[in-house]
What does this fold into?
Amino acid sequence: MTLEAEIHEQPVALARLLAEGGPEVTALASWVRGHEVRYVVIAARGTSDNAARYAKYLWGERNRLTVGLAAPSLFGPYGSPPSLEGSLVVGISQSGRSPDLVAVLEEARRQGRPAFAVTNDPASPLARAADAVLDLRAGPERAVAATKTYTAELLAIALFSAALAEDRRMLHELNRVPDLAEAMLARAHQVEDVAEAHREIDRCAVLGRGFNLATAFEWALKLQELCYVAALAFSSADFEHGPIALAEPGFSVFAVAPDGPLRASVQDLTARLRSRHGAPVLAMSDHPETLAAATFGIRLPGSMPEWESPIAAAVGVQLFCAALSRSKSLDPDTPRTLRKVTRTR
Amino acid sequence: MTLEAEIHEQPVALARLLAEGGPEVTALASWVRGHEVRYVVIAARGTSDNAARYAKYLWGERNRLTVGLAAPSLFGPYGSPPSLEGSLVVGISQSGRSPDLVAVLEEARRQGRPAFAVTNDPASPLARAADAVLDLRAGPERAVAATKTYTAELLAIALFSAALAEDRRMLHELNRVPDLAEAMLARAHQVEDVAEAHREIDRCAVLGRGFNLATAFEWALKLQELCYVAALAFSSADFEHGPIALAEPGFSVFAVAPDGPLRASVQDLTARLRSRHGAPVLAMSDHPETLAAATFGIRLPGSMPEWESPIAAAVGVQLFCAALSRSKSLDPDTPRTLRKVTRTR
It folds into this structure.
């Protein structure tokens, strides 16, 4: 029950990062302000790549930064790294030990660009290759599937955003994150019932947009690694440009759509998927209308700003996938063939 | 048979772009050199987003440019576009008519940044929002699934790269592209036999890395829209960070791995997928060893540089998916519920 235990540790782990990480984040933001940064390049893989997707939208919307994801193979195998002039480089990794990510940060330093690492191991090679480290303080993560380090990465990304913008209101709102995680955990039984209803699926699509594009990709990844479901993640806009042809009565569509400027468009799409395609829809939302328009619903805690919702939604995703894995008589603690640290080059 | 006809038009369409596009590309490259460009932002959706993935690696490797994909929802729904200072903005779209992409180019001009459009319709809104246009000259594309406009986008991206680098050898090598497409079309029967052997699949993974990450994503997209297969595309490195748990005897893995610095790592992975997971592997490669290590093989024409291979590989992907669609008694000319022009906001 390692995975289950780590899912339930999240309110404490997130509160620890809030309590102890403040000075580190403030120092980091002030150091970054001392550089001329035109854009941000993030190097990450797996779950951390989904945290990077969150940073792309949050730092874009809150800090007006253009954020791109690095192409690690240009830095290693091809041996012809692009120019990073004008960039801030960020490496995100729970273990900090994948050589291809370390190579991106080493190149940043070679080119004299500022680089920091977001990691759960401040002694890791990734941390050593960086100028500064944002330590996740999530405690050792033993389950193969990342849970508490993912939400800690999201919180670290949001803390950095608030500190860089010197946005006191945002910092204040972040203090509620442990309670939001707790509120989601309190819904475990409801989420598990919804998961149980999906025990037969072996393919599905997971849609999100904006801040919760990250949630859609993380949900799909957890469905793949814990439940062996061929889950396809899409921006709901990209889904309409082709893959929507997959939708049919036997093909479930999951949608993450909390209140915000994109909610209505996602809800319009899911309503069409139900009525025209006959596809069953599971919506994760805090909005009654979006929940009512779906076949199944997972209710997010209300009264949080949209940019904060991916942290609560991630806890819902974890509860859902751990329960679905058990419903399928699989063992979520030991997904076949996976190891905790993956060293790709 | 619209799709089939358009697939076979490619050598002619590509030769037309080579013959007529030269002066436009040269002028564009010299105009771009007149700006201080620190990084590139590309706005694209669907098939064109896969062309953007090719640009990310090609312009990174050949032109040392850091390339990122835009987050269109920041420009429209959220109404808080990031700063584009230091950027070159590129819109890629067959029709040039998706409002969310037009919004990105309009914002670039508002911020005084250079922006060009790569499109098959030089009178489209996307083209009108741009400072300059690279016209694909592919002729009207009537099938819902993009084929000749995708390979024309790849060729346009490569022509721009060669012109920007003033690389005569690369320009010379590009003259062979129509012959490479022709050589791939000559293998139609072999590809169709391999497709026929896969008629029962309804889920699979498609792997690629580097230049051919684009091919993996395009193959997956065509499998989704033409064959209703839940095809998951991954960088082979990302696949190892979790989704590899999906691999089992009934789960096919397709891998695009022509000769180059990444071929050995992809081949190592596919060999493991066969021996340890029992997953059937279909390899698309020009290398005998990689083909021999797979359960099924699609041979790419030899003696082309790796960066040129995605164009030939795309033709193979199209032939495969059109044939698989027919094998599944579907109609590749009219995928359910899709329209040619998708207008997302």
Summary: Chain A touches chain B through 73 residues (CB under 8 Å).
